[in-house]
Amino acid sequence: MMGGTSGLEQLDELYESIILDHYRNPRHTELLENPDIDVEANNPFCGDEVHIQLALDGSNVKNVSVSGQGCAISQSSASLLAEMLEDKRADEALELVTLVRRMMRGEELSEAEMDTLGDIVALEGVKRFPVRIKCALLSWTALEDALSEEKAD
Fold it and tell me: For position 131, which CATH number holds?
């Protein structure tokens, strides 16, 4: 096909634009006054850092703040996480973590699971670069640790 772009190339461009948009314009970065959960995580190998704060109403995420510094993958993943968490229950948030991990491992996800992930699917291409998977999972791992700790209390 001369002069045109394939559907796959257009999809790659769309996903790239989602990642760059979240990197350049991160969502939910305003620090919370009295968070119920406040966790920081970093990847010492590359220097990526993330700071997650959650305000809970029972087991529901009422408000979320995610900030940090690092590569486009880690920071856009954190922004996508923040966008998805608001008004989710803790168990739904943990389900998202599981789906993101499965996606990064290259496991087959159902159409319904892909729909659940929404724009997070833009990170799927990261799995082709194993060294970058930790970048994409940094905020998700921190969230999982924080929610598991909260559950244990």
Answer: 3.90.1010.10
